[in-house]
Amino acid sequence: MKRLAGKVALVTGASRGIGRAIAVQLAADGALVAVHYNKAAEEADRTLELIEGAGGAGFTLAADLADASGHRTLSDTFLGMLRQRRGASSFDILVNNAGIDDRKTIEQVTEADFDRMVQVNFKAPFFLIQALLPALNDGGRIINISSMGARASFPTMPVYAPTKSALSTLSRILAVHLGPRGITVNALMPGATATDMNAAARDADLSRSIAQTIALGRVGQPGDIARVVAFLASDDGGWITGQSIDVSGGQRL
Ligand SMILES: NC(=O)c1ccc[n+]([C@@H]2O[C@H](COP(=O)([O-])OP(=O)(O)OC[C@H]3O[C@@H](n4cnc5c(N)ncnc54)[C@H](OP(=O)(O)O)[C@@H]3O)[C@@H](O)[C@H]2O)c1
Prior knowledge:
binds NADP nicotinamide-adenine-dinucleotide phosphate, Rossmann fold, 41% helix
């Protein structure tokens, strides 16, 4: 029996990069996976193709989390689709992965940049958790994708990194609050991972120089993060809560 058989998961930002790898991994482990995206409908369909091609199951749904009501659109659509598909709208695993980065120093950041990053990276996950808590089964999982930028100083991340620190702090607070329901809440802190967001980690020369700051000597791949998410989502990860777990191969230790 697969370790997530019978479970239902929502992965935000699953059209590309780390979110896609998480969605594919959770589905391969047996979960029914809701593949959320913002604009990249074709990419989200590709994620679903990968899931179904490996014998898994899922569905796609869109919501713009930069919009103040985006979390509500997402939770209503998700629960409505679950009701239609399964006759019940409870679920087991929420992965807050969608995020944006905007490499600027403090001198360059505008108020609009600041508001957008706080909205997508912290406010939307916060209110998505709030909206979905009544539907999250006892014994469930909340996994927030933070960043190792929350523990190391990158001068072009003066808004991004604090939004990720906020997610880590929120995880610790909710772990205590939701412990009585057997729900675990953790944050993962990826390091440089080769995705659209981190083009440098995809570039042959630049990634070699980033790799020199990483104990294990290479940049991360989305699957490196996804496998840890799947572990935390499984029964084997059930004794870990309130933690911010570095998944960077030992970057800037
Ligand atoms: N890559 C790294 O080096 C790295 C390191 C540390 C932490 N992280 C974190 O890991 C997570 C995933 O990053 P990634 O590298 O996989 O990024 P990515 O390849 O740029 O993918 C971002 C995902 O977020 C979604 N998204 C962006 N803006 C959105 C919005 N306004 N509303 C709803 N969804 C939105 C995108 O949807 P569309 O495709 O529809 O646009 C996409 O699915 C992020 O939280 C990021 O901060 C990444």
